[in-house]
Specification:
With 410 residues, this protein is mainly alpha-helical. It has one domain (23-404): Orthogonal Bundle (Ribonucleotide Reductase, subunit A). It has helices spanning 3-15, 58-69, 80-88, 93-113, 116-122, 128-156, 161-164, 171-199, 206-230, 232-245, 249-278, 285-313, 325-342, 377-380. α8 (171-199) packs antiparallel against α9 (206-230) and α9 (206-230) packs antiparallel against α11 (249-278). It is elongated, with a radius of gyration of 22 Å. The structure holds fe (ii) ion (FE2) (2 copies). The site of one fe (ii) ion has 6 residues, from α11.
């Protein structure tokens, strides 16, 4: 156990006695609050009316608007062709195995993301626009993405257990799960203690708050890596199968919608990171500077882990015309460099300068997002276009587009 955490817990519990009143107003404080004066993540929590007409950070709310505009329902994507192709053997056993490996890992990612954003950041913010943003983010991960994998498991696999059982016995997956959850879990311990001190009105020691802020930043870097790098070798490999054989249109489209959402989440994390880096009054600027070496290390190590994952994906050989393990790895390196560039950091892989998968823009949809990788959603919605895409019609313009004004893809 982290000794600072333990010492702070003992200190906090020592301050709580039978006469302690506690706050009793953490969910709604009945008093006038000017949220324009509140920090995103402050020393204390002040929450009451949710209002979105007057906000400290309208660009955070613009991201929420974009998330909502991209609402979709997994069951509306047809998986019939995929099912037939799985059953008739049109998909080779090695391609099927690759798809299974990819979805297993995505199941892990979104199970984690379905709860982490709101439990971590939603519990410690005072700003209505940030609270709403985290709530919406968790909703998309847990209620839409996670359910989409169950949809695939039910409709394409003869036995859904094939996707859900046994993941914790795959050494490389367990290794990556530990690596991804570590920063989240470490920060979550601090969130719990922060809330305990809030509940009982215990003043938080400065050294605790310093470490709290550091762990918060590290967890945000961690999630940026997850949203921005770790999904991509799997996405690209499944799309490569679709691109060359046309046998998995439904799974491929599901992943396109997930990827589009991940791009919006990528944008939101970058927004928070930039606010915390640049707005001195938020109290993070100094710690941000201190954690930069760790930021660089985390991105590179994550990409290297994804190289390892890619080797596992291609173990035993997978036959995909014009696509292989080396291309997938180079794409991961390319994506990693792009994510670092957005944060003003030098490339982790300076030799990789261009996108090795020329056709990927058809699949990576963000509509106004990644200008190098994408074309607009109107152009990219596929021949197998489904009812799902209709949700975005009418919201892809106007203020929603401003969500991507400067951040992720500048
Ligand atoms: Fe997700
Ligand atoms: Fe996400």
């Amino acid at each position: 156990m982290d000794s600072l955490l333990l010492e702070t817990a003992k200190y906090a519990l020592g301050r709580i006695s039978s006469g302690t009143e506690g706050r009793h107003d953490l969910l709604y404080a009945i008093r006038d609050l000017d949220f324009l004066e509140e920090p995103i993540f402050g020393e204390t929590l002040e929450r009451n009316t949710q209002r979105f007409d007057r906000m400290k950070y309208p660009k955070i709310d613009a991201n929420t608007e974009r998330q909502l505009g991209y609402f979709w329902i997994p069951s509306e994507i047809s998986l019939e062709a995929d099912r037939n192709n799985f059953q008739s053997g049109k998909i080779s056993p090695s391609q099927k195995e690759l798809i299974t490996k990819v979805i297993r890992k995505l199941i892990f990612f979104d199970s984690l993301q379905g709860r982490a954003p709101f439990l971590l950041y939603g519990q410690i913010t005072s700003l209505p626009e940030a609270e709403n943003n985290f709530l919406s983010w968790s909703f998309f991960e847990g209620v839409i993405h996670s359910r989409s994998y169950t949809e695939i498991a039910r409709k394409v696999y003869p036995d859904p257990d094939e996707l859900f059982e046994g993941s914790h016995e795959i050494p490389v997956l367990v290794k990556h799960e530990k690596s991804v959850t570590k920063r989240y879990n470490e920060f979550y311990d601090y969130v719990i203690l922060y809330n305990l001190m809030e509940t009982f009105g215990v003043k938080k020691p400065p050294e605790f708050m310093k470490e709290f802020r550091k762990k918060l930043l590290l967890s945000l870097f961690n999630v940026n890596v997850l949203e921005g790098i770790r999904f991509y070798p799997g996405f690209a490999s499944v799309w490569a199968i679709q691109e060359t054989t046309g046998t998995v249109p439904g799974i491929s489209e599901t992943l396109k919608f997930i990827c589009r959402d991940e791009n919006v989440h990528l944008d939101l994390v970058v927004k928070y990171l930039k606010i915390l880096r640049d707005s001195k009054e938020e109290g993070f600027s100094e710690i941000y500077e201190e954690t930069i070496p760790e930021l660089d290390r985390m991105y590179k190590e994550a990409a290297e882990e994804e190289f390892e994952w890619t080797e596992y994906l291609f173990e035993g050989g997978v036959d995909i015309v014009g696509y292989n393990e080396d291309i997938a790895k180079e794409y991961v390196a390319y994506v990693c460099n792009r994510r670092l560039a957005v944060l003003g950091r030098p490339p982790a892989f300076p030799d990789v300068k261009s996108n090795p998968i020329p056709w990927i823009g058809k699949y990576v949809m963000s509509s106004g997002g990644d200008k190098k990788e994408n074309v607009s959603s109107a152009e990219t919605l596929p021949q197998e276009k489904s009812a799902v895409s209709d949700y975005v019609i009418g919201v892809a313009g106007g203020s929603v587009d401003e969500a991507f004004e400067e951040d992720v893809y500048e």
